Request: fold
Amino acid sequence: MHCYEDLVNCLSCGIILIGLGHLVHHRKTQTSYGRHMVLSPPARTVPARLAWFLQEIPALLAPLLLMFTSHKPSITGKHLLLGTFCTHYFQRTFVYSLLTRGRPFPLGVMVAAGFFCTLNGFLQGHYLLHCAHFDEEWSADYRCKTGLVLFYVGMAINIHSDYILRNLRKPGEVSYKIPTGGLFEYVSGANYLGEIVEWFGFAVATWSLPALSFAVFSLSFIGPRAYYHHRCLRHSQNAEQSCHSTLILPCQTYPTLPYSISE
Reply:
């Protein structure tokens, strides 16, 4: 397949701008997500497990379809795509989604997330299979090695943190509790930290604009969630543990603001 370089660059820049726009918009406005989600009475919702499965699977199917229908794709790009991006979304689609105990999702949120996953899956897959030019020694390059280490360390942090969060609740419970153990002893958003490290590792390993755009987008969306989550814990009367942890990086401090956990 021909490399649509102009399309790749436009989509990558668009994703960066959307991410930064979201970051600016939610500097003072709390994003509607998880415990902070506000639903209007007629809003249609989808069970959490089904919602996660349906919104995540396009990011796995899009690059796989490109891979199986491509003529002479980049071998190095194929291995990077399978070993990183597809591995992440396989875990999110077939493991995380089936184990999560979260609240039902608004249908609109699920559709929007599914659309982005489809677009991003195509972008990352098309670039690595048809546009990237890796030499034969790329797998030995320090950037590739460093990026892969960051990716797998971040993925391990993310999976372990999700395990801790999931096991805070008994079957059927959807209330939020303060996590302890693992990196939650040091940061309040350990799961968010893991995913941010993961995608910046992916960007380093592939050394590409599309991967960097996704990393910036992820940081811009996850960052506000982590901030409000940390603020929520910090100012809860029962959140003594959170007073000894930071947001997603050690030694970060934030101004005291009146806030409390309602659940």
Q: What stands out?
A: The beta strands are 45-46, 105-106. The longest strand covers residues 45-46. Helices lie at 5-25, 48-69, 75-99, 107-131, 142-166, 190-206, 209-234.
